[in-house]
Design goal:
With 252 residues, the chain is α/β, with parallel strands linked by helices. The chain has one domain (4-250): TIM Barrel (Alpha-Beta Barrel), CATH 3.20.20.70. Helices cover 41% and strands 16% of the residues. Bound molecules: 2-phosphoglycolic acid (PGA). 2-phosphoglycolic acid (PGA) binds at residues 9, 168, 173-174, 211-214, 232-236.
Length: 252
């Protein structure tokens, strides 16, 4: 049985006080959603420590949104996987399209970040997804395949067993435009095929999340698809009520 996961990517939103409040509200409403759904909240670095404290024992895990590619040293402004893990954080989002686009993250950087994450016991949520022009040109399968082959194919089987993948079409992120449930299923099934080609049947256990304008009104339809195992939620994760409502969208 694959995990069902709803992860909230808060991006660069909320002050620490607001973030703790949001996390507390998620904790308060957690009981209304099936315990079969794993919730993860990913606040900015500055709130990680406090959010770990308020979510402890609640069944809500905490993730970071990034980590450094190096272990330690003279890398001004960077935050290492070890620092993050030492706070009690369990997950780290890697390869988000905003990191690829605005901060020049390449597969080379991401391989190093994945290594750091695993070396420190963090579970990566590895993001893939095509841009609008790539989809329009029919290149989305090739783009996503390359993003998987260049990074995920380098993992050991043991590392792969822990991996979470998120498919986020760039054209759907923060735009209000969502992939249709059929589009999501088509590419999620493709992603699983690509993973199967390298890791065999183990790919059947990998949680593949959909991300991109996912909200309470469309989550149920998307999550009902066979190869969609949950969501990576941006905007709608900033309201506890909406975030939790998305978790209620599982019918399988
Ligand atoms: P969105 O963001 O839900 O606001 O579209 C999703 C993401 O970028 O993870």
């Amino acid at each position: 049985m694959r995990k069902k996961i709803v992860a909230g990517n808060w991006k660069m939103n909320t002050t620490p006080v607001e973030g703790v409040e949001l996390a507390k509200n998620v904790v308060a409403g957690r009981g209304e959603v099936c315990s079969c759904v794993d919730f993860i909240v990913c606040p900015p670095f500055t709130h990680l420590s406090e959010v770990v404290k308020v979510t402890r024992g609640s069944g809500i895990a905490v993730g970071a949104q990034n980590c450094a590619a190096e272990a330690k040293g003279a890398y001004t402004g960077e935050v290492s996987a070890q620092m993050i893990a030492s706070l009690g954080v369990e997950y780290v989002i890697l390869g988000h399209s905003e990191r690829r686009e605005y901060y020049g993250e390449t597969s080379k950087t991401l391989n190093a970040k994945m290594e750091q994450a695993y070396a420190n016991g963090l579970t990566p949520i590895y993001c893939v997804g095509e841009k609008l022009d790539e989809r329009e040109a029919g290149k989305h399968f090739d783009v996503v395949k390359a993003q998987l082959e260049e990074v995920v194919y380098n993992l050991t089987e043991e590392q792969f067993a822990k991996l979470v993948v998120a498919y986020e079409p760039v054209w759907a992120i923060g735009t209000g435009k969502t992939a249709t449930a059929e589009q999501a299923q088509e590419i999620h099934a493709f992603i699983r095929e690509v993973l199967r080609a390298r890791f065999g049947a183990k790919a059947d256990d990998t949680a593949i999340l959909y991300g991109g304008s996912c909200k309470p009104s469309n989550a149920a339809e998307i999550f009902a698809k066979a190869d969609v195992d949950g969501g990576l939620i941006g905007g709608a994760a900033l309201k506890a009520e909406d975030f939790l409502a998305i978790g209620k969208g599982f019918s399988k």
